[in-house]
Amino acid sequence: MDFVTYLGFTPTVGLMIVAEVLLLMMSAMMSASEVAFFSLTPADVRRLKHDGSMASEQAVRLLAKPDMLLATILVVNNLVNIGIVVLATDIIDSLFVFERFEFLFTGILVTFLLLLFGEILPKVFAQGANISVATAFSQPLVIMRWLVYPLSFVLVHTSERISERLAQHNNDLSIEDLADAVDMTTGSSTEEQKILSGIVNFASREVEEIMRPRMDIVAVELTMSFEEVKRVIIESGYSRLPVYSESIDNIKGMLFVKDLLEYVNRSDDFGWQGLIREPYIVPMHKKVNSMLDDFRTDKIHMAIVVDEYGATQGLLTLEDILEEVVGEISDESDVEESFYHRLNENTYVFEGKTHIIDMLRVLQLDDELFEDVQGRAETIAGLLLELNRNFLRKGDELSSHGIRFIVTAMDGHRIDKIKIILPTNG
């Protein structure tokens, strides 16, 4: 080999080789510790806490400050790796003289040693014995944390500052990004998936999509007697009622039942009108997440929804918003009345005011099934009007996407009940 000359082995070279092996062992310990500590599950940590040994206690204390632990491992590992590279170069220079390719030979040899013995093998081992490795190396890590504390401290606090700065400028995730993230979740239950989907869709929804429609508002008229007001309160079971004058489009305020409690035994001519509070009016195209912020900021629980002409279109409560995320919320005052009845495997009867999304979920169909035909309709009755383009009568039948809709009851010109027949399998 004319490009390399062997100089011979000396005791000094032997000492350097021993030091190189020790450095490689330390590098392996740091790599194994990183994997071992940061792959511990909550159950593993509980086992360490209940173990009672000094090594386990030290491991738990190290985990109490994970940023400092990681910084210690990285600082020590990098210092050791630098030492390995420098020492390996000195060993090779003491044993050989190269005419060419010395850098290539040194680079390949050091990379091989570091990757195999300092990274791959220790990490593979630590992955399968993380508790044992964590407890075995906890004492050396405590000592090393003390030795390199100044460097670790600077590293942790610098990274925290950078993270805070980046967090201020990177909060603009799109709804599509969040929706994709929910779709990729695999460990969540069906109920958790529904809640996650509700949170994702929350910001894009408008008040008119979740409000209680005008026809379902229970309100009291400004000229009602006290007895009439109490009767409406008892029959409805609601704790807050809108108050209107002559027409529901002319909302004068909100009546809180709790404000009436101390006057409940007053005579029929009691002036309850003096207890009404200012109404909170919102446009029907206001975003739901903005509406929730208003509810929280102003400490209110109910709003009247109006269109661009100021006409009352519906009513929205804090409970309606929360139900968009967590599903139906029931309490002891709710009347257990289902909005649908199942007649057989393929036949259901729904209330016309039922939201299309609620119907599709009951029928276990795709939420976007009628997206191409529903237009701006939000309820089943609205969907039928979109399909027919005219008023319907009792007995009228329509079909869409293989599903039959039959109007079974009317309330004046309003569709009250609808029979829905799903296509039979096969």
3D architecture notes:
By secondary structure, this protein is of the alpha+beta class. It folds into four domains: about 5-170, no CATH class; about 175-200, no CATH class; about 205-325, CBS-domain; about 340-420, Uridine Diphospho-n-acetylenolpyruvylglucosamine Reductase, domain 3, CATH 3.30.465.10. It is built from 16 helices and 14 strands. The strands form four sheets. The chain has a five-stranded antiparallel beta sheet, covered by helices on one side. Strand 10 and strand 11 (about 345-350) form a beta hairpin. Helix 3 crosses helix 6.
Notable traits:
426 residues, CBS-domain, 4 domains, 14 strands, elongated
The shape, in one word, is elongated
Radius of gyration, taken over Cα atoms and rounded to an integer in Å: 36 Å
| SS strand fraction | 15-25%
Q: What average pLDDT do the residues reach?
A: 82
Major sheet characteristics: 5 strands, antiparallel
